[in-house]
């Protein structure tokens, strides 16, 4: 195989049959990384709760300040100095660590990283402050939910 064919093959988009879908529901340490998650998600466009409640109070029962954010700048970094997991992999968004790959998947995940088989990363961050309408009255109250992270990956077979 000539160098040009090698380069063409390396740059070729994989077909659907060459990819597999993986979903990671629970990212480790998100409770520890709540301030970092808030910092990252605050870069998304926040909704103005008060404006929405004024304009659509009859149609809306819950309004999130930062409902869902799909960051574009996601990368993984091996954490060889982690005292809890020798295979730990950090999840970095916009140069801010937001958690770890679950330890039961970390070894395999490192292998995928080494083999450069991770093709596409789709990260979803959700949660934060919200305003909710009470069921029995027209009153609204403010509350918040911890941020959570879900990850969807396309892996080369």
Description:
- By secondary structure, the chain is α+β, with helices and mostly antiparallel strands.
- 23% of the residues lie in helices and 38% in strands.
- Strands 1, 2, 3, 7 and 8 form a five-stranded antiparallel sheet that branches. It has a three-stranded antiparallel sheet with strand order 4-5-6.
- A hairpin with a 6-residue loop joins β7 and β8 (140-156).
- The mean pLDDT is 79.
Class from helix and strand fractions: alpha+beta
Major beta sheet, specifics? 5 strands, antiparallel
**End-to-end distance, in Å?**
22 Å
Helix content: 10-25%
- Per DSSP E runs of 2 or more residues, the count of β-strands stands at 8
Beta-strand level of the residues, as a percent range? 35-45%
Count of DSSP H/I helices = 4
What is the residue-mean pLDDT, rounded to a whole number?
A: 79
In one word, what is the shape?
elongated
Poorly predicted runs of 5 or more residues: none
Radius of gyration: 20 Å
The secondary-structure element order is HEHHEEEEEHEE
Key terms:
single chain, 157 residues
């Amino acid at each position: 195989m000539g160098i040009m064919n090698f380069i063409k093959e390396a740059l070729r988009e994989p077909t659907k049959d060459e990819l597999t879908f993986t979903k990671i529901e629970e990212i480790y340490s998100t409770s520890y990384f709540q301030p970092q998650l808030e910092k990252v998600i605050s870069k998304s466009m926040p909704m103005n709760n008060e404006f929405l409640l004024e304009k659509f109070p009859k149609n809306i029962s819950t309004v999130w300040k930062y409902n869902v954010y799909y960051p574009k700048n996601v990368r993984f970094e091996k954490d060889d100095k982690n005292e809890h997991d020798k295979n730990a992999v950090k999840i970095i968004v916009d140069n801010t660590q937001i958690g770890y790959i679950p330890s039961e998947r970390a070894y395999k995940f490192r292998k995928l990283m080494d083999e450069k088989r991770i093709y596409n990363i789709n990260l979803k961050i959700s949660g934060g402050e919200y305003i909710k309408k009470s069921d029995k009255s027209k009153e609204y109250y403010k509350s918040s939910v911890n941020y959570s992270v879900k990850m969807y990956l396309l892996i080369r077979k």
